[in-house]
Amino acid sequence: MNRRSYIRLMAFLASTLAFRVNADIGKARSAPSGQPKRDTTDWELWKAAFLTHDGRVVDHLQDDASHSEGQGYGMFLAAWFGDMQAFQRMDGWTSSFLAVRQDPLLAWRWTPNQSPQISDYNNATDGDLFHAWALLRAGLRFKSDDYLARAREVARFIAASCVRPDPRGNGRLLFLPGAERFSTDEYATVNPSYYMPLAMRELGLAASEPALLRCADDGEALLAELAVAVGLVPDWIDVGPFGWRYAQGHPAQSGYDALRSALFLIWSGSLDHPAVERAAAFYIAEAKRGAPVPTVIASSGKTVRATSDYPGYEAVSALVSCAAGADEHVMISRSLDDQPYFPATLHLFSQIASDTVGLTC
What we know:
It is a single chain. By secondary structure, the chain is mainly alpha-helical. The protein has one domain (3-357): Alpha/alpha barrel (Glycosyltransferase). The protein is built from twelve helices and ten strands. The chain has helices at 3-29, 41-50, 68-80, 84-97, 125-141, 145-161, 197-206, 210-230, 259-267, 274-286, 311-323, 341-357, and strands spanning 66-67, 109-110, 163-165, 173-175, 188-190, 237-240, 243-246, 253-254, 293-298, 304-308. The strands form four sheets. Strands 5-6-7 form a three-stranded antiparallel β-sheet, with no helix packed on it. A three-stranded antiparallel β-sheet has the order 8-9-10. Strands 1-2 form a two-stranded antiparallel sheet. β9 (293-298) and β10 (304-308) form a beta hairpin. The longest helix has 27 residues, at 3-29. The termini are far apart.
């Protein structure tokens, strides 16, 4: 490809991405008739509960630790709500305390009451993915070339270090949970909930990384395969030359990790995906109004190991049921109430996903 053709291609990709992101943001600003418009009330509650003055997102149930996931999630939310000040605070803390590796990826955990505060310098790819996506969205929303350049850098490194061919030789790509530790010559360990197709596609376009675009498609295919095979998408799996299995060293279950799989698929526009349909069938059968929501389900799909009455998990259940066209009218709660970081964040994500795809949940 000559330089002129390359420049034209980059301009086309940039305009395509800007159109998609602006349309996404526009849906949240002017919701369809009958759908409540979002305000910033829940975002302000989220910040008050979990964001420190210096930009650290705190998970109070995890020893007040901060994770690359939380920083990435928080930065995305700040970009979504147009809160430049909060974004800059989180970006500054993340750059100072988690960007300590020799590459553009982040150390996955920082604990305040521990010495050293980072004891494991490995990355967590879901945190890096949202970190890059947040930088991309902020770059477009706040018109920052610096954020856009950094988003592309992280995206390219994710594609180079956290994507590998499926050992089954089917031509697909797998999204690894980290750049190190999760892959051997025979098996690759995968967390299916780390696939966020919309983020992968936007970053793939912005960074001209076809591996991320392919990985988004292949990830949706993998999640469909899992859903058809066992119903609810597992938390962790091992993929080897002869198939997949529940990951060694992890419980054989669909739990708090897997809660995100159907949510991210819906957010990405795949409302009729088998993983969404299977999750909806489970919620419609098992999640009774006014009762705690099942959150950890054994691999059999029949034994509920844990439930929760946090509204964030109920919001995910309502979103999934609504996306699948449940006969019973379901609504996503409009208040974060008093809940920990993870369900509160999934609560906001469920609201954003509903707005993005035009559901009236």
